[in-house]
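In response to a reviewer's request, we include the raw inputs and outputs for one of the modeled complexes. The two entities were modeled together in a single run.
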Amino acid sequence: MALSKVWVHAEINENGVAPITLEMLAKARTIADTVEAFVGDAGDGVAATLGAHGATTVHATGDLGGKLQGVHVAAALAAAIEAGGAPDLLMLGTTYDGRDIAARLSVKLDKPVLTNNIDVDVTDGIVVTTPIFGGTQLVKTKFAAGAPAIALFRPKSFVAEESGGGAAAVAELAVPDTGAAGTAVRTNRFVEETSGPKLDEAAVVVAGGRGLGEAAKFELIEDLAKTLKGAPGASRAIVDAGWVPYSYQVGQTGKVVKPTVYIAAGISGATQHMVGMKGSKNIIAINKDPEAPIFGVADLGIVGDVHKVLPKLLEALQAR
Amino acid sequence: MNVVVCVKQIPDPADPGALNADHTLKRDGKLILDESDSYGVEMALQLVDKAGEGEVTLVSMAPNGEVSGLRTALAMGAAKAVLVSDDALKGAGALDTAKVLAAAIKRVEGADLVLAATESSDGYTGTVPEQIAAILDLPSITFAKSVEIADGTVKVQRQTEAGYDECESPLPALVSVTAGVVEPRYPSFKGIMAAKSKPVDTVTIADLGIDAAIVGWAGAGQEIVNVEAAPEREAGEVIEDDGEAHVKIVEFLDGLKVL
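The model returned the following structure tokens for the whole complex.
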């Protein structure tokens, strides 16, 4: 059973349409006859990319200025759905704005939203797959509240693929008055300067944890990442401790990464962390505790002191 | 300045999690304060301190009248708590939980600000705070990494993929905070003793005027069809560093052609 219509949230970042959107569009094409996108922004600039990945129409609110996405996009979607345009399924990313929009919409429609999914199947109703307990078990849940189903997907659950389609048609997604709930505004944006590839797109990720001992030693991680033309990452423990910004965090609450090589240095491998990196193609772990759970998923495990292994590794690589 | 903080009492994350036969999370042992919520409690205490007046009220939903996690937050300095405990809430999803917490928040008079963690450590949907805001028709700013209040306005640095946004909202409002927004205090001995006699208003969903048919399994609008073990990743070679382990890593990287 294929679905008749799926709507995919088009998330926009500083480089245009975010990878999560293109990943979901690829999946949507395999489960629905009609795939359309919606965006809390102007549609013209993204219609070509969305069309090339299979969306025939993009429902666009137009530039929201400083208005927050959650309240306004959800209100616009609810109005469109009440007017009779309901899709069978709405797909959004488990991202900051994706969660806000889905949460607000679920209240407006009085329907559940299922979060953190990594797959969806439509052979017998709409069934999503969600990892629990740090990804050790998979739960399959069927939507039972009628259309539309609202589901949030973790980044990198699907592989983006162009469909060869022409630009999507742009349709207006009118935003109704949002009253008191709509009074929060964004006044400024700050982009943290990073050099090198992005954490969730890099072929090599070098991540550090509590085993580094102190914040200053994170420099080792950054140097190694730079030498390998990769991106530095971090466990939640050292982000909470304030050693590095939240944008470095890999794991359940942080980024999902699937690089060619993931090097975990001084990271024990809490389930919280593993769920964000277990999908890496190759994993190298360096930790002084031979019982550390990270060794259970590592292709190459080094039981040793990161303060000894990393400087020698850096030297050897830089000598090449 | 009165602040309501939503807190969750969860099974100790150090113990392996388990499911009941009906696929609900086993929550029958002792529950503790979700560490993620200690940040919201600390933030609330600091905002009330700074304002020089008002108090912090906790709102929680848990089975069996569980209060041990609430006592931890009361020991940190919260003044009182509302606990919703009802067998009908077994199997409650994120939206049901938001309906119940929103109704409990309404019992707290004069709340200027509602704080919550961005997500719980066990369920981790990350949708409940925004759903509560929607039900209460409040403006909201989620994923805060800093929170300040001045002249009836809450100013927030909101986490984004690339950095952060500066956002602001008139009060009353709801803000969800990330871990690391503040450093939570450890309860003092005096605080722990005082917490024992702080009021916990334990209510049922009937007290909140909520129909049992719309929450819990009965109203979930979803049905778990299967739970299975995820495919395991095989462990590879583990070696002891003999001073030359870096050579092994270089060889491994060479084999992958990433150098």
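As requested, we also summarize the result in words. The radius of gyration of chain A is 21 Å. Residues 166 and 199 of chain A are 31 Å apart (CA to CA).
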